[in-house]
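The methods section describes the discrete structure representation at length, but only in general terms. What matters is that the chain and its backbone geometry are given together, residue for residue. For illustration, here is how one protein appears when written out as sequence plus structure tokens:
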Amino acid sequence: MPRIMPAGITLPKLVEILSRYTVHTDPEIIKSASNALLRVATQIDSQTVVIGFSRYVCKIEDKFSDIILSLGSGPIIGGVHQGNGGVIKLYVDLLSIWVNQLDLTALERPANPNMRGSVEVNIGKVFDLVEETEANGLLYLCSQSPSVRRFAIQIIKTASNLTDRLNVILQNKENTQGQPTKKWTRLYQLLESAGQDMIQFDKDSNTLLGSKVSSEVKNKILQHQRRGAEQVLIQIAESDHPSDLLIWNIFLPEVFKLCFEHFPKATAQCRVNICTRLIQIQPSISAWVETIKAGTTGTLSMAKNSSSNHKAASPETIEQWRIYLIFACATATLIESPTVSLPIWSAVGRKGSSQVDRISSPRDLFKLMLPYLTCEHRPVRESVIEALGYINQNVYKSLMSELDGYVKVILDDGKQRNNQKPYQNKRSKKNDRLRISVMNVLELTADCLSDPKSVGDKDLMNVIMSYIKETKSFLVDTEVQIEWEYQRLRIYLCGLVDKLYQSIMKLEDPTSLMSFETRLSLYKMFEEWCGYGTSANTTQQREAMMIRDVLEQCKDPKERASMTQLIEDERKALELASLSAMATLCRGPLYAYLGQKKARQAIIQFDTLNVLRWIDAIFESRDPSYHSIARRALEAVMIYNQDQSVLLDDIIEQCYAGNPKLEFTQGYFQALADIVTQVEDYPCHIHQIMSLALFKTGDAKKAIRKTAINLLRVIEERVFADSCAKEYEIGITSSLPAIYKHTQTLLSARLALDHPEQTYSMLSEITQRFEHITPNSQREVLTYMLPWHRKIDLGVGPHDTELSASAYMVLSNLYYITIKFGDVYVKETAALWSQLVDSGRNVHAIIMYLLDMGQEKRNPWFLIHAKRVFVCLGRTHAFATITEEIIREITPRAMVPQLKEASNRHAHAFPLLFVADTEKVLPSYPKKPMFSKGQLAMVFLVDLAIEAGADLAPHLPLLLHSIFVQLDHLTSIICDQSRCFLINLMHSIVVRQSMDSEASRKASEIIQWLVGKEGKRLWAYENITPTNRRIVSADELKDLIQQVVQVFSYEDRDLRQKWGETALKWATCCSVRHIACRSFQCFRGLMPAFNQHMLADMLARLSNTIADKSEEIRGFALEIILTLTEVAKSMDESQMEQFPQLFWAAVACLYSPYESEHCEALLLLDVVLQKYKFIPKLAESFPKNWSSEFDGLQPLLLKGLQFSSAEEKTFSILDSISLQDNLPLIDPTETRLMYLLLGCLPRLLHGLDDEKAVNPESIQLANTLVKLFEDYGLSGIQRILATYPIQKSKFQEDFLKQILSSMRDVFLVNYSQQAFMFTLLMVKNKLPYYREKTLLVIENLVPYVTGKLIRTTTEVSIDIAALEPLLQLVQTEYADRALSILNSGIPTVTSDRKSAMSSDNELIYGFNNFAEAAKITRHNIHAVVFECSSITNEAPIEHNIQFSVEDFSMLTGESNATENGRMYHDLSVGITQPAVSRVSAPGQYGDDLMNALKDLDDFFNEDGEPISPSSSSNLYNGFSQEEGGSNSFLEPKIY
């Protein structure tokens, strides 16, 4: 052939016969047939040969693939073709002959010129043949053999070459300009160029087209990418490299889809062939499955039956079957035909009715495939599942219809499982395989749900949702949770939910398909699988348990290694799938209402905090591929929960808080920026976004800076219609830190200038985020905060007493930063404070804030940081204003510690802005001491004095005094800061600047001594009291003050006078008793030049504190008297003559019923009399407003005989004045000598106690009396007194009786009652001899009182109250004598009967009426004050020192604590009356002695001074706070 052709056989028939002989067992026949075909094609009709041979070749079944392959590579006789080839090679050769012989010119010439369409008809036939050829090439391209694929590509290329030649003819004949140009006109072009798009390897996920690859495959892919060859797909298809084979298998589905999309006709033809081949292969596959079953069950009959007719499929056949299934599914399309759903378990895997004879529709294909979902042979089952995963979208519904029956099997199994008891619940392996396979198919095909029609199909969605819920119910089973075999099921469920929910979210109401409860329960279940967030530990424990159980079954080390790797791969797969699904489920509100909309009673919700923590955990993952999941979740949470402001706040915080170098930090910001940029009405505050964008413009990453500047531009344009951001974009996007960081500061300044209304909001936002910012960025933030402080006005005027809410916010925030970060960013915080007070602005506001907060916080640490602020402020131009303002706060009135409750007045002023709570950053201090504004102001200046001491020099008197009165303060910080302040002032003013070396030396010595006192008080904290009128600390203070004055006097010569005046002002005006007392001590140490003003001030203060029932206040009065005494001592006679008021002040003090005050008054009087002399001129200066007629000094002095400490000084003064001729000042009354003699009797009798000799002092006293009585002409008494030096001790009583007898007619007849009561007064004197001798006098006076020895002119009746001194002796050794006197028949009366004694004498001698005595004492001192005022021609100031009865009643009732344990609790004087205070006015005693004895114990007050009766304590005699200009004191309790 072809020279000799068989007769009667057509050429097509001949070609068919020859084609059959090309597949023969005899190689010679194959060669002959092949050569014959080649010659026939060459010499007769190549087209007919090609058509006939191609149709025969395509019918060769895949079970003969080994024959095809061997021929494909075996030799063939035909030298023209280099002797290699086979069936497919022969087909390629025949195609080449046909293409080469095709005469295109003949096609162009019409056979009949009259038939114009003949050319198109001829070309059309050729095109059909080309498409058939391409379909054949595509069929062989599906081969799993690389050698076959090489020929397949040659076939496709040959068809393409012919098409190109045909297209030239068509282009010449027709104008194709108006037709759209296709991307690929032929299949070969697709294979040539599609590879570059497909081979895009995802390095993050390590996947190629979604499929994970090994490192070898990855290297091969990267190698192909580097080469960049256009025909990379063809190279991979032809390659037999193992990695290329894997890559080709990954590409196949995509290639099939592209072919179906661009070449539907060729694909359809190929699909017909493939479906035929699937039917052909089907029996082999079934046989293989049956063989596997037999192997597992041991049933030989089944194996024999299955293998009798069909040979079991080889692995190559299964692989080929897999590829055909993928092609069929990927290119399947809908065909309208009636469908009948076949029964499931009755037919699956069996012969008979289930056998598919031909595939005429997608449903036929699915019927063929779905039974293998339960196949035990994994490659077969996975081949089916993989193929179904690539189905064409338009046949998805058909698949689901066929799959519905399988789904129902699982649902029924679930129902049955739920109805059974746990021990009956045995799972079926077959059902488990089906369960996993169906879920895998649903997951792989879920992409088809992106079609709205599919999601809108309720029946379809019900099937899927039912299966999801059943699977969820199955997986939450306790046993299932710890079984590794369901790991794939978990992965597939996550994937399905992920894709399904994305499609559901496109609906108007997603909850119609997936309720909130279902979504939430799925999220929580996935959370237990993902290994991140709150359930991470639970996940790890379960995984460890499952891994242990699996590995225990693996005995072989190699098997264990491979299983370990498999477990890890699946664990990672589940982790990724669950995270992705959770991120998708975050799309939607995080909460929902249960029940009807109108009756929203219950809320079901995600745990928002846990969701955010989960996102944080993913962002922190080391796997960068997870960051996109976290960002997706974050964006979903933000978009779908715009009403949850707390979410946005937390997300913004993360943008600040994270390390900028970490990916997750930028993930937060990028997500936020994208959403705010894209969602125009996203609910956020402008200051939040502006602050964040400004912060991120300084980020190290250029991409972040670019995003930040763009975000700022968008938000500005959205709110303000214009933006300055574009002007700074070049600088911000620069790569040099020096450029973009400087530009950031410039941008901040511009924003502050353009948007001043945002100042408070911006400062609040920056402060709120500041502590979360990394230390590397905090300095930059403080730098760009500066412009926002530059123009701010806190709006607090000089006369305002309250801070505005905005001022409070700004200062709290800035002070918060200063406390927490001031030590780290010293210069930056200082710059912020300086900007705030630029040009003297806001000084008053800052000082007010720090003083108020210092009193509220009551924390010494607050003061430490406040000092830092003042040092910063002291370095600004506003220094003068600041010092003037703060020193103005150091006043006597401001030294009272006040309990200032923490104010909430500004807490809700700015609900959207951050106001820092400084309490949270201050170290705790449990004692909570109270501070006064004056103390705080002084402490604030301590460190400022180091640098600005010279500028504080004009205020030295005030500052030094405020220091000295607090050097012993019980609050350690006040005490220590006072010491430091003194050191700093001396160093900066004297040591550093003084030109006098001696001054510097002395100052340095004092400083050295003060430094050694660190942590200690310089002297004891103590006050003068009535029982302790001299304290060591006063002398120590005096010594130091004189040294300090001497040192500072080199710089200020008038310091002593100025300071002294300041000290006196504080002493008389300060409301803190201890400070007032120390002030008097300072005054005594300084001793400035004295004047009438000073005297008036002292006496005015004394007038409302002397004779007070409170010991503390009497102690203060003693300070004043002591000071007056020191002043008097410092005067010479000429100076003393200018101050006669000192004499009368001393006299007025003698009226006090208290021993301590009387004694100090005696000392003052003694000093005055020594220097003034007792001259009648004193009477000329007698105060006009004295309380009564002045009866002279003697009664006041004799009153002192009742006080043991006053007795000696009393006689000393009496001795100096008794013989002087100045009766108006001494005692002008007729009883003068009687009282004087009675007062001297105890001393005279005591002088006789020594049997050897009479006391010389007593003799001198007797001589004085003798002279006095002689001058008065009372010779009888004078004679007996003259015998005193010769009296004997044993005859004392006789001497006494003689004296009394001599007094009888002169005095006792008329004044026996007065004489008796006066002697009763002397019993109070605690000197033992005084009581003994006074009792002796009383015993001898009793007969005169009872009338036994004398008949008086008037009836004698002793007030029962006057007997109190005798009652006080009942518990002493004098009890018998006292009771004997009380029982001697003394006539008594109660106080309601009029006493014969004058009221004046009673008050002078102080018979129990303390209140009246105190009133007179104060009145008389007031009278002296008025005299001083008349001299100075100034109005008296005592009207400013008035106390009110009402105020005192409110200030009583709190117990007195020991002095070292007291605390400033409030501003009241708390004095509790001891038991003796129950003794009230004399009228309350009753009519007889027994009534008094019932309360006998109440009369004894041997310790300390007597305490005034409560009923008469109606004087306001405490320290009070000054109100309305009052100079009155209020004594705080001290600690």
